[in-house]
Amino acid sequence: MMKFHDPLRMLAALLVALLAMSPPAFADDLEDAAKLLKSGQHQQALERVNKLLAAKPKDARGRFLKGLIFAEQGNVKDATDVFLALTKDFPNLPEPYNNLAVIYASQGQYDKARGALEQSIRTHPSYATAYENLGDVYAKLASQAYDKALQFDSANPAAKNKLALVRELVGGSATAKPVAVAAAPTSAASSPPGVPKDAAKPPVAVAAEPAKPAAPKEAAKAPVALAAVEPAKPAAGKPAAPKTGNAEILNMLNAWARAWSSKDVDGYLSFYAKDFKTPGGVSRADWEKTRRQRISAPKSIEVTVGSPKVNAGADGQVSVTFRQGYRSDILAAANATKTLVLTFAEGRWLIQQERVGN
Amino acid sequence: MSSLPSAFLRLAVAFFVFASPAFSAGPAKAISGAGPEQALSGVLEAIEANRIDLATQRVEALIAAHPNFRLAHLIRGDLLLARARPLETFGNVPKTVPREKIDDLRAEALLRVRAYRDRPNGGRVPRYILQLHAGQKHALVVDSRRSRLYVFENAGGRPQYIADYYVTLGKNGVEKTREGDQKTPIGVYHVTANLPRQKLTDFYGAGAFPINYPNAWDKRLGRNGHGIWLHGTPSDTYSRPPRASDGCIVLANADLESVGRSVQIGLTPVIIADEIAWTDAKSLEGDRKSLADSFEAWRAAWQTRDTNRYLSHYAPRFHSGDQNLAAWAEHKRKVNAGKKWIKVAVSKVAMIKDPRETFVVVSFDQDYRSSNLSNVMRKRQYWVKHDGRWRILYEGGA
To answer: Does A159 touch chain B (CB under 8 A)?
Structure first.
């Protein structure tokens, strides 16, 4: 029987936020199934999930929960199959990779676990759980290497597995379902906090805090630059961007940097709102043309995001400030502080203004 | 992934600082490296340069080449662990692991890197190989402090460095005197046989080359024991710790095979030193010439049948088998008196200094002809400086 303990790295709320964007009946059933799982009623949970999946066989959250149930039951094979299929169908979601890695690690397959976690991090560069798990996997790999160095017989590799299985699917942008988006208000800032979880809730809530801020410590020791996730401090009593929206903003930020880095100009431009304030007030067409040239010219570009901080201003303005690293084969720019002023439109966060400095 | 926790960097640098005082002589990088030292140094250089990915790549290539290279696995362990948390030490294994296991690997790392950085340059030769004879293609010299075996080629009678290898020596160090003392002897030996892999257990790896411990000098000093071999490693181990054998000289299997190709049974000298004394070719030639002149004077004196002149080349402490100098003198006077003429020709003369004792072992083919007896044999003499002159301390068949 596998042990997936460690609530520390388990995300606190179970499936709460993501249910918000599902049709209520489905969401309730999913929540019930999750509750059943939580109370250890694996079989009942499985039956409930299977019923849900009969109606919506592709549903990522239902399948994710099913994978969790299998994992809790110690059904390694089926759990692996479920998470593996999820990584294929939803390659942009970090959680299935993470959980796949946890299962691999529990089987002593640390190289495969490492691969899956690196995939998870590639999908979601500020994913603290994957970093912590990756750290543990590296420690296990090190211990195997040491065993070889000292010619010890490897101890039971699964014995001290303390990797964390992620309990919920919070996901990157892939989870944003058009269905839910249609019902979304256009500005998160205008939504009062603490709305009941029903269809009226802004879809930003879909991203329950994923990378749970064990992050500052992680950033210091993780071998890659890790975007520390700091929850914004909304001005007291002000209806600012809900806390749960930060993850989505950070997802967007990372996706934007990724599109830029991979020289995907169309993808990059799609992050800019229709009413984006172009620098110097040039026309949108001219600005796009310049950007297209700048991004196309270098053979390679690497844009990194460091210490992003989401700010919800008293005026309701949402922005994100971060250290931007830029390097291409033609130019290496010094890290600069950059601020993106955001707007929630078309069901997602878009850039309304881009400026250097705070 | 690019950056590396700084603790690891500090450690890596400390490792080199620790190692560097020994890197006194100028390294000779022109000569091709033997064994995995070059790759190992490449790994440590990458660590030093804070390039963890490169270091990982290199150590994995090293492991691919030598899957049972324990030291490489240790470093790989460190590189992996460094991604999980800052390292505290080189070989950052759990505290429960017996210290000596790690100390062994650390010692091996230091010795290997040091040897790589401090390879002898073209002009440097051990003080021991005064002359090789034309039939000897190579000579092997072991430095116990460096855990290293150096291979020299015979270039017109003079040694020329061609390669060196990490070796494991006796658990209890060097200066073997007794059976079972688990020490490696110090002295001048030669390879006496070639035992192929098929005739041995896996423990000896790719093969074995026994040497002639105890030699005549060892026996004279009452040393005993037997079975000192050069041999390989078991199939599950690329190399063993620096001090681990029962007195044998252990090489990695590939290294033993390389060395084996240069070994001639009964001919190849194996000189085992505590710490090799290096010199330059010029002063070595000075030593060689002074001894060669005395050797020639001895030969010429023998031909004159002037027994006193002949005996003046022998040291007071001389012995041969049971004979001391007096017995030897009496015997020679008797023999010489009955001869009308003597002609002595020598060939294949090799001169090798004992690394610890003061004498030089001179081996040669002796073609002795006289009015009533002729005889051809291979001989061995120990020459020692006595009152500023070279004299013979021992003489016998080789």
So the answer is: no
